[in-house]
Amino acid sequence: MTVTNTQTLVALDLPNPSRSSRLKLGLSDTVTLTLRDLRVWVRNPAFIFFTIIQPVMFVLLFRYVFGGAIQVKVPGGYVSFLMPGIIAQSAAFASFGTAIALARQLQKGVIDRFRAMPMARSAVLLGRLVGDAIRLLVTVLVILGVGYLVGFRFSNGFLPAILMLILGVVFGVTICTVSAFVGLAIKDEESVGSFGLVWLFPLTFVSAAFVPVQSMPGWLQAFANNQPVTIVIDEMRSLALGGPLTLHAWQSGVWLAGIIAVFVPLAVRAYRKAT
Amino acid sequence: MSSFNDGAGWDGPAIFVEDVHKSFGKVQALSGIDLVVERGKVLGLLGPNGAGKTTAVKILTTLIKPDRGRALVEGRDVLRSPAAVRDIIGLAGQSAAIQEELTGRENLEIMGRLYHLDPDTRRRRSNELLEQFDLLDAADRPTKGYSGGMQRRLDLALSLVSLPRVLFLDEPTTGLDPRSRLGMWEVIRELVSIGTTLLLTTQYLEEADELADEIVVIDHGKVIAAGTALELKNRVGGDVVQFEVVEKSRIGEAAEAVRSLSESDLATDGESGQVSLRVGKNGSQALVETVRRLDALGIQTEGLAVRRPSLDDVFLSLTGHGAEEPEASSSSSRRRAGKRH
After folding, report:
1. How far apart are CA A81 and CA A243, in angstroms?
2. What pTM was estimated for this model as a whole?
3. Are the Cβ atoms of A116 and B91 closer than 8 angstroms?
4. What is the pLDDT of residues B17-27, one digit of tens each?
5. How far apart (Å, rounded) are the C-alpha atoms in residues A158 and A240?
6. pLDDT category, B1, cuts 50, 70, 90?
């Protein structure tokens, strides 16, 4: 090679962008990617199935097929008991999409392309999570609409009802941060799907989502009573139907904040290292 | 567009790589490579799978950091000013980084947004690129329905939205059918004609021969040869006599018969029955002698010809194995040995 006088090649001294301009670009890139994400979502029939049709089927299944056999002691009967559970379960299952989408983008090289561009590196993850929040809101509203048709009623006032809705979405986004980490760490679309089943099924079904925990054997109750899904669902039930709020409220807050505090940095790290 | 795009004060080469090392765990992907690409030139980075081509591209596009050494793109250090590097490069990868649910135009527009172009520039650029890459008719259809060649063209178009000064193409035609490959070559030649500096990695010797001003051959993370296609071919020197043995079991016999005509080691491929040998300057005489010797043994051949050396021959002589089948020569020599009684 003709490598001559390399000593004279002094790199240009160029500043990296300032913090404030990075913040501005990060915001605009996040909006761009969120809109891209949502546009892809509404065009893909499979996504619509998982975010809307599947939760509706679950409502009808539990309300009319299993519901008759499950005894609960809440005002309004099983349909009232069921609604917060279905919302939490659907929100958790929606996070499959997050893990699979990120793994696929990584595999296809989309994320590499983005990282070689002068855009904010955080925007890919943030855009996905903001998109998730909007999708979750749609899903929760659809479930509540169907719930109202089959006899569910909020019985604790307007503000707590709104708070329940927000808690459902925040819970879903929290689970999505775990899934984001799983997707970026495992990187393989199919393994991500199977792994999702392994942790999401027990977490949502061995909880107070569909049946009272008291109906489970004692050893299972110990797990079901103390895991975050049950705690969040209990809180959502109290908000929707009335009941003791304070204890569940701070427990839910601590759990959700804790999960976010652990998994957001993990996801960011996996994203940085993934290539 | 961007505050870094003035490029003031740099009159060195567009790409400058000096003694770059990179390992992943115990695997040494690059063990000290040097590259220099002058502005507006095309460098073909050639090597078998796993030679370190993609690692080199990833370092130059700021996706991974080198363990040691320096890498500058238009004078911008990939370690010290990665953001300034990203401002002036384009990257098109091995697989199409397009969103299938969106149309070609939408894909381009979103890229424009991510490069922070204003709306007018975005629209204009998208139209220009759609026209340039012959995608206007399909512009408003979801890209899911595009052919492989169209997807690859769109993918390349996406990397050009910001008018990059230095473009990296990582195996741009891998997996394409021959016709689409020719189409891509044409598009790439056009790009180069407007002065874009291009670093192209490929496994296809023919592709580097067609497109590159200079070729760097790497193997096991090291540069093993550099120069123009012509220089590399001259280095190998001489004509090549090549033929296929019809009765493949007699390939060893045929190789022994002509071995003394070869200036250096001859290559055999047991699978196709192909034998090729470098015969120096006197190609036609060697051809006649080959016919005579094989005929005397009653060995039938097909496609007997004398030709100028190709980059395949260059690769073979440099690495001791072919470009696409790293084990071809050793396994065929094993087979040859086995047949001897």
Report:
1. 12
2. 0.81
3. yes
4. 999 999 999 99
5. 9
6. very low
Q: Are residues B226 and B217 in contact, defined by beta-carbon separation less than 8 angstroms?
A: yes
| pLDDT attached to residue A7 | 54
Tell me how close the Cα of B233 comes to any Cα of chain A, in angstroms: 16
Note whether B10 contacts A12, CB cutoff 8 Å. yes
Q: Is B97 in contact with A44 (Cβ distance < 8 A)?
A: no
**pLDDT band (50, 70, 90) for residue A5:** low
Predicted complex ipTM: 0.86
Is B115 part of the contact surface with chain A (CB cutoff 8 Å)?
yes
Q: Over the range A139-174, which residues count as b (16 or more CB within 10 Å of their CB) and which as e?
A: bbebbbebbeeeebebebeeebbebbbebbbbbbbb
Is the confidence at residue B7, as pLDDT, over 70? no
Please tell me which of the candidates B10, B36, B102 has its beta carbon nearest to residue A39.
B102
In the chain, the amino acid numbered B245 is V
Instruction: Look at A17 and B102 and tell me if their CB atoms are within 8 Å.
Output: no
Q: Does B34 touch chain A (CB under 8 A)?
A: yes
The 10s digit of each residue's pLDDT in B279-327 is 877 788 888 989 999 889 888 888 888 887 777 777 777 776 655 544 3
Tell me how crowded residue A204 is: count the other CB atoms within 10 A of its CB.
22
Rounded CA-CA distance A37/A128 in Å is 7
Parse chain A into domains and list their residue ranges.
Answer: 24-66+73-273
Interface test with A, best of B59, B86, B99, B199 (most A CBs within 10 A): B99
Q: In chain B, what are the domains? A: 15-227 (3.40.50.300), 237-339 (3.30.70.980)
